[in-house]
Amino acid sequence: MKKGALIGCGFFARNHMHAWADVEGAAITALCDRDENRLKETADRFGVERTYTDAADLLKSEELDFVDIATTVQTHRPLVELAAGSRVHIICQKPFADAMEDGKAMIDAAASAGVTLMVHENFRWQSAIRAAKAELDKGSIGMPFWGRVSFRSAYDVYSGQPYLATDDRFIIQDLGIHILDIARFLFGDAHTISASTKRVNPAIRAEDVATMMLVHESGVTSVVDCSYASRLPRESFPESLLEVDGSEGTLRLMPGYRLVLHNASGTRELDVSPPLLSWAARPWHNIQESVYNIQRHFIDCLNASSAPETSGLDNLNTLELVEAAYLSAAENSRTIKLDTA
Ligand code: NAD
Fold first, then answer.
1. Non-local CB neighbours of 5 within 8 Å, separated by 6+ positions
2. What pLDDT digit, counting tens, does each position of 81-125 carry?
3. CATH architecture classification, 124-279+317-337
4. How much is the pLDDT for 339?
5. CATH code of the domain made up of 2-115
6. Residue to substitute in 6, 11, 163, 286 for testing ligand 1 pocket (most ligand atoms within 8 angstroms of CB)
């Protein structure tokens, strides 16, 4: 049994806790949050007796195999370095870092300590996205040459996560990071990116719309587009939609988790809806299932001593896309060359 502690008992951590309860071979035995009310509320809800308001105290007092860091980005580097110093494995929420040098420093700290460092980059772990990838890998549409990964919504994300309305960066850093990571997952790393951003909602501080174009090393050109300002007749939050054109056919992941594949043999439509886990609630069930999938992957990797798919090192390439997208948007959509890890 791998014993873990959750650091950060905020808005999203409840999903982590439910998912940990379902992951075989893992148990959360201690909690930490510097906010005593949140700490107590989570401890009571999930029946965890050992609680700390200071992560250093937690790491000094508990015997742990891993920590699950579910705080916002500003605290990731100090907490990852602290955990690496105590030689425990680490799973850390996205955005892993808001500067490349912090990402690299965390990777170095984990490597020197000989511990696993995985980023909780969960969108690629959604079952609909995995089903689409399996079709591409099977060659169902031949060799992909063009793709679109799209997330457009007007869902009120600000009430659950008020920091999204006030941070200096919004949609690329919070949501685009996931959508860019899906593009990497499907089409591989990119040579170049260009981007344009816009703020439509006057009540928030940063951009709520972003459109990015990537040229991938595989030869695919993709468009990654995100919006929290799009009032659609049918709200599909939090679905990521896909369009991929290949040499032999096309793939579409449509609202309602409908995967449509077309090639010379005809058209197939598959229902790739995520399962509704016992603790999940629509429309979040898609994200909630991916939290379970990624946390299970983390434990599988610890048991097998293998590198996680979304390791810290892998995630540097997603972070680089985020940084390059902001740079491009600030410089009139200039094309930025990437230098992947
Ligand atoms: P939140 O502000 O609601 O919760 C963060 C908690 O961490 C707070 O309770 C805060 O007191 C605590 N905290 C901060 N620094 C701490 C420290 N040094 N020691 C102990 N506790 C500390 O934030 P949230 O909305 O739950 O988001 C947390 C992270 O999860 C963010 O990085 C966010 O981007 C990410 N997130 C991911 C997904 C996803 O699908 N992967 C979805 C939502 C949020």
1. 28, 29, 30, 31, 32, 58, 62, 64, 66, 67, 68
2. 999 999 999 999 999 999 999 999 999 999 999 999 999 999 999
3. 2-Layer Sandwich (3.30)
4. 84
5. 3.40.50.720
6. 11
